[in-house]
Structure of F-box domain-containing protein:
Amino acid sequence: MKEIKRQREENLKDSDHKKQKLQVKPNDLNKFDDLISSQPTSFEYLPNEIMYKIFEYLNFHHIYIAFSNLNIRFENLLRNSKQHVEVSCSSMSKSTFEYYHKQILIPNQYQMRSLHVTNPFIINSIWKSLSNFIQLEILHLNNVDKRQLKNIFKDLISLPKLSSLTILCIESMKTANHYFLDIFQIPNLKYCKVKLITSAHDEILPFCSKNASPIEHFIIEDNIYLENLISFLSYLPQLHRLSIDRLSGKFVNQMNNRNSILSNNLTHLSIKKTMISMNCFELFIQNYFTRLQVLNISRECVGEYINGFRWEQLISTSIQNLKSFALQINCKINDLLMRENIIQQFQSPFWQEKQWFFVCSSYSIMFDSYINLYSINPYR
């Protein structure tokens, strides 16, 4: 009992001591105010390390406009900065860019890490010095004139650190194969998004016989023919993700004994609009894409892609690692019983076990009835 009483007394003493430490006398507050007022609190007095950290969150164009003519210290900060420069020239007038190009891009060309340009005039002005951006890692060029492509790709091959490339061309061309071959030669490219619109059927690319591309994620915003895509893949042994706007043509197994040179690393495939038959699609998957984990397909059809049993068979036998399946099909069907049968096919135990669920809506145009079948919440 005495021991408990002694502990309580010690706790009370300790509490009183803490209260005394927390109490602030008026004289102490005055001293604190004097200390604060004696220290420089202006933005320009922040240490260089903090200024450079702030710069990391700003567009280099805005940094230059705000600080370049402020004082000698900030002039030196910009001139001697070792940080990577990220530049966006998306909404500049011609006169603004000419000043910007001379005062910012050229002096900092060896530090340029990221460059985003959407103005065709700016692209035309900048490609001449593109090969000097030896630190460039990310390049986004939108609204590119097809006449500029040859010179642009020639310079891109010489950029040792370029890992992400987006090139969207505004005009159609007869063939794009030679540009794809240039892309495959960029030494450290991991991500590539291209829009190279072709007005004719490209010749089939020759199979890769030399150094392959390190690209892991490829997005093609254009039509590509199936027979050319197979040759295309021979250049991309590290490819994990492939997205295509439109897939057409027919399956021709021109590989024969060359299947071994094609990588089987592709895990994500997305086709916004497939124009090939279901037979061709099945052969394509069975021969080249058996390790798929994510499959997104959209199709306007007359019936074959809307066969739930056929999809069930393909998935259970050829792409057993599939974890996510997104399907959207628009189809003309006037038979009410057939519509009910289609819905039931996608409600079998197979789909329920996978937790892949589908919705089927119907609508009419003139005297024809259509259904729109699509998956919901495909990603879990």
